[in-house]
Backbone:
């Protein structure tokens, strides 16, 4: 993003039809809530919607937005971010033609397979979205940076220095990243031809 001059990259981890975008990326947990604003979340939903169209060839996406607090704030008794920030951002996006729903409580959303109803999911912070994604993908997912003029994919698990040279590494996430880079490039070419 820095090299491309892009101020708002979007991290998406995915495997097949499970796509999880992060509202905040690599932040300490104590800094997450102060980095989620209504305008920022609106922009993230817009970027994600555009990426689902451009990079994954989904014409009319259905986006789920997770809450920040346990039980999605439980009507403000466990936090006000859902009522004051997340719901108004979702409403704004729906008024402007982006179908989004939520906020959902992350535990029930993934635990009861609600994620299967959506083309994409926005998690408020790193572990909220990536723990379920990595469990569901069994470590074979892809890390993709959306909103760049180029296609950037990598394995979902990082470099694996701790197992380098031991002959135990699994190449499937790297393989999936390469195939995904090709697929996303082809999707962009299709969309450019429209």
Residues:
């Amino acid at each position: 993003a820095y090299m491309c001059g892009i101020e708002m990259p979007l991290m998406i981890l995915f495997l097949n039809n499970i796509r999880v975008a992060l509202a905040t990326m690599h932040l300490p947990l104590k800094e997450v809530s102060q980095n989620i604003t209504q305008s920022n979340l609106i922009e993230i939903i817009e970027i994600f919607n555009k990426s689902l169209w451009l990079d994954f060839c989904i014409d009319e996406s259905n986006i789920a937005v997770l809450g920040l607090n346990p039980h999605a704030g439980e009507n403000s008794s466990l936090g006000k971010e859902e009522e004051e920030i997340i719901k108004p951002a979702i409403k704004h996006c729906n008024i402007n033609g982006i179908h989004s729903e939520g906020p959902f409580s992350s535990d029930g959303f993934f635990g009861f397979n609600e994620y299967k109803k959506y083309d994409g999911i926005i998690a408020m912070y790193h572990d909220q979205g990536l723990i379920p994604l990595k469990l569901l993908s069994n470590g074979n997912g892809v890390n993709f940076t959306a909103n760049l003029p180029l296609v950037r994919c990598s394995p979902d698990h990082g470099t694996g220095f701790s197992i380098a040279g031991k002959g135990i590494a699994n190449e499937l996430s790297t393989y999936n990243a390469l195939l995904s880079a090709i697929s996303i490039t082809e999707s962009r070419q299709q969309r450019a031809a429209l």
Summary: The chain has a mean pLDDT of 94. The helical segments are 29-32, 38-54, 81-95, 106-111, 126-137, 172-192. The longest strand covers residues 10-15.
